[in-house]
Amino acid sequence: MALKDLFTKNQPKKKKYATIPTETAKSDVPEGIMTKCPSCKKIMYTKELLKNTKVCLHCGFHFQMNAKERIDSFIDEGSFVEINENMVSENPLNFPDYLEKLEKDRQKSKLNEAVVTGMGKVNGQKIVLAIMDASFRMGSMGSVVGEKITLAIEKADELSLPFIIFTASGGARMQEGALSLMQMAKTSVALKRFSNNGGLIISIMTHPTTGGVSASFASLGDYNFAEPGALIAFAGRRVIEQSIREELPEDFQTAEFLLKHGQLDAIISRIDLVEKITNILEIHQPGGEIEW
């Protein structure tokens, strides 16, 4: 018998125990440190996701962005100046609990309304910008949303600057009835006047862009772009299927489907967006040439 066997043979095996973290240890891990992609189901550090402009590092899925995140990722640092930020909705139809819901959304989103408008620079080029934010009443379009967008278009016209809009909306705001639907006509007329004066309009549709927004200013750009996988629609899928009594294609109402059928000019990943938009802004300068 080897000498080492005297110390190892017939010795009871040590039991293995699982370590259960204490409540104190659990609280040491910050909430939201990891994010799971709803598309590929892979988990990544939230910090890395934010660095990648909220685009999944594994499959390229585009997470929703709020207005502040959009400004930070798209506009030159320190160049954004907000306009008409203090405009707030009223309750013209005395819709029950509407004002209370608006106040809750203000607290939650830190915004006064579902769109942020202002002026800024993209790679040094001045623009007027409107960004819809789905965290406020699902980006629905009420009187103030329409008014802010119209005023932003008029500001672009006054300053002879390009107008860029990021759309994200559930459609017209039901609590304002026909007043909400009137914003479709008002914004469309403002864009037509701006276009007649030689203004450049770039629309970038994000997930989701639906209802009256998709049927008006979102689709009236000189360039109509979308982010990958964005839902872009007027009526809901189920409503259409029931109306025409047919089953719609799997990818119906996606950005990819619309591009295939000629309703979009391009689908642009958020990672490439600044470069592509800069190129478009440059070709609309005197002597500009496109490099796509």
The coarse overall form would be globular
H-E order: HHEEHHEHEEHEHEHEHHEH
Taking Cα atoms only, what radius of gyration do you get, to the nearest Å? 25 Å
What gap, in angstroms, lies between the N and C termini? 78 Å
Query: What class, by secondary structure content?
Result: alpha/beta
- How much of the sequence lies in strands comes to 15-25%
Q: List the uncertain runs.
A: none
The percent of residues in helical segments reads: 25-40%
Q: Would you report the number of β strands?
A: 9
Main β-sheet description: 7 strands, mixed
Number of helices: 11
The order of strands across the largest sheet is 3-4-5-6-7-8-9
Provide the residue-averaged pLDDT.
90
Task: Describe the protein in words.
- The chain has 292 residues and is an alpha/beta fold.
- It is 35% helix and 16% strand.
- It has a 7-stranded mixed sheet with strand order 3-4-5-6-7-8-9, with helices on both faces. Strands 1-2 form a two-stranded antiparallel sheet.
- A hairpin with a 6-residue loop joins strand 1 and strand 2.
- Helix 6 (143-159) packs parallel to helix 7 (177-196).
- It is globular.
